[in-house]
């Protein structure tokens, strides 16, 4: 018998679409401000800071952060936490380029941890594309959603 | 420039994590979560007594270390793990080493440490040089 048998299962969020309808453009001004905010100067070759993999996909996906949480029946005010983030680039991100996002929730798994108690582990995948559909990167993010309502 | 497995990479240091940068990133990320902006909210949630850096900024610090270590190189893959918070005013240092070399692909292991609390982020990445 699992120690989770006394709990309801995690909501069935897998498969929820995160396809976006926004276009995200990396501007030279914002890229420069972002680079400097992290302690470096912007690149001179027209490439954007690679952390735009996270920013562009989050901003242009089909749900807000609160909306992703809602799809998991989780109140964003309860504090989602980043667990991990992975990215695979097919091409560098460029200043002045415009992108769109497709993606989906891969899984939502209920677990119990000594530190956090009951939590749902959310994994979702986003892809960044040029406007002609060419994929430039794929990212998998894992968030931890602490389920305070199940605290002992 | 030649590289070898086991080589240490030059550290990248943020002398004091900036609450002003967190305000900028709230706009970049379109996510005005107050734990990054308002110390009173952080205190009320029992999360500490300083504003909390957005996780992707910490990833950017680690990317900066890699890009400085391999000028002209390109990050092909990167995986980051979030182990603890980084707070406004923290001194944060990224260190790393070369774990493998295959052709023009260099795989690195790295971590982000803050003074007094140890490793708060860690990861691996492959850079095409």
TrEMBL record, chain A:
Concerning Gene3D superfamilies, the annotation shows: Hotdog Thioesterase
- SUPFAM superfamilies (alphabetical): Thioesterase/thiol ester dehydrase-isomerase
Q: Specify the protein name.
A: N-terminal of MaoC-like dehydratase domain-containing protein
Native source species: Sphingobium fontiphilum
Q: Which InterPro entries match?
A: HotDog_dom_sf (IPR029069)
From TrEMBL, chain B:
CDD domains associated with the record: R_hydratase_like
Task: Enumerate the InterPro entries for this protein.
Answer: HotDog_dom_sf, MaoC-like_dom
- The protein's superkingdom reads Bacteria
Positions of the MaoC-like domain: 16-95
Q: What is this protein called?
A: Acyl dehydratase
